[in-house]
Amino acid sequence: MVRLKNRWLLFEITYDSTRPPDLNLRDISSVVKESISFNFGDVGLGSILSSISGTIKKCQLAAIEYDRQQILALKHADKLKDDQDVDHLLERSRREIMAVEI
């Protein structure tokens, strides 16, 4: 029987100045992809990208659901007075989370 193993990548971005560098997810993902391609070739890059895409989608959906629960909890605690505020926050949250792609 073959055991499947999950591998995780964790990294920290450090900088010297008092102001953080202007980085976005595309810049970071581009550097990560280049590094994987350089170290593991096209096959390594292909296998990583195919596994990442499904994982990212699941993370996005989980984050949207979490934000929805938090926003509704704020509404029930009377910290949000208007249904329009709730709708606006939910839509903004969904847009920001779905914009994250690798």
UniProtKB/TrEMBL annotation:
Look up the domain of life of the source: Eukaryota
Q: Name one GO molecular function term.
A: ribonuclease P RNA binding
One biological-process term from Gene Ontology?
A: tRNA 5'-leader removal
| Pfam families found in the cross-reference section | RNase_P_Rpp14
GO cellular component terms attached to this protein's record: multimeric ribonuclease P complex; nucleolus; ribonuclease MRP complex
Which keywords are on file for this protein? Nucleus, tRNA processing
Q: Which InterPro entries match?
A: Pop5/Rpp14/Rnp2-like, RNase_P/MRP_POP5, Rnp2-like_sf
SUPFAM superfamilies reported in the protein's UniProt record: Rnp2-like
Q: Where in the cell is it found?
A: Nucleus
Q: What family name appears in the similarity comment?
A: Belongs to the eukaryotic/archaeal RNase P protein component 2 family.
Q: Output this protein's name.
A: 8907_t:CDS:1
